[in-house]
Amino acid sequence: MDKQKQKAIEHHNVALINNIDPQAVVDNMFVSLLSLVEKEFIKKSNSTRRDTNCELIFILFRKREELEPFERFVEALKKTDASHKILAKAILKTYKQDKGTTGFETVSRTSLTGAEETNYGLQM
What we know:
Structural class: mainly alpha
GO cellular component, one term: cytoplasm
Low-confidence stretches: 102-120
Domain Caspase recruitment: 1-84
CATH topology: Death Domain, Fas
Pfam families: CARD_2
InterPro entries: CARD_dom, DEATH-like_dom_sf
CATH class: Mainly Alpha
Order of helices and strands: HHHHHHHEE
Number of strands: 2
Oligomer: single chain
Keywords: Immunity, Innate immunity, Isopeptide bond, Phosphoprotein, Ubl conjugation
Number of helices: 7
Radius of gyration: 16 Å
C-alpha cells in the first residue's frame, strides 16, 4: 500500500483497532484483495478483537498498490454500517488533506491548552 494511504489509516489507528468489526469488514471486502488463507486467519483468529483488527490492517499494508487495498478497505468500511462509514469518511478526509501537502510544506501543531490549538505552516 502507498505510504500516504498507510499514513491516513495510521492517523485513525486507535479508532480502527478499538471499534471496527473485522469479520464484517472482511465480508464486505472485495474478493480478490484477500487470499482465502488471509480471510480464514482473520475470521478464525482466537485473539482479541483488537489483535484481529491489527492483523487486518497489517495484511492490508503489505498489499501491492495495484490491488487498491486502501480504496477497497474504505469501501468495505462504508458498506459495513453507519459507524464504520464515519471512520471511512474520516480516513478519506485525512488522506485528501495529506495528499494536498507538498514536499515543500510542513505543518506542525502545538497544543497551547486543552481548548485551543495553533497551526504553524512553513512554505518555501
